[in-house]
Sequence to fold (98 residues):
Amino acid sequence: MTTLVLETEPLATSVTVTDEKLIVDLIDGRSLATPLFWYPRLTHASPQERQNWQLLGDGYAIEWPDLDEHIGVEGLLAGRQSGESQQSLQRWLATRAS
Fold:
């Protein structure tokens, strides 16, 4: 079994959220595009909430404070989708409807 060893820590510099994709630009010039449906909270967010993001630290993760959503850049590179359970998502959606 091999283990992936990153030569440098992947850091985000900017984020774009469309109706279909989450696009993250990295400090080394690459751009990552992932389907938005991988992240249900972003899928259910308003355009304004999607645009209210901030980088954590030097860009190791992205936070959407209005949504209580945090996505790590290493997870994006590894192809990890949201690990949120359906129960948790349903509770969160119920609080938004109130």
User: Anything to note?
Assistant: The domain at 12-97 is CATH 3.30.2020.40 (NE0471 N-terminal domain-like). The chain has four helices and six strands. The chain has one domain: 12-97. The longest strand covers residues 12-17.
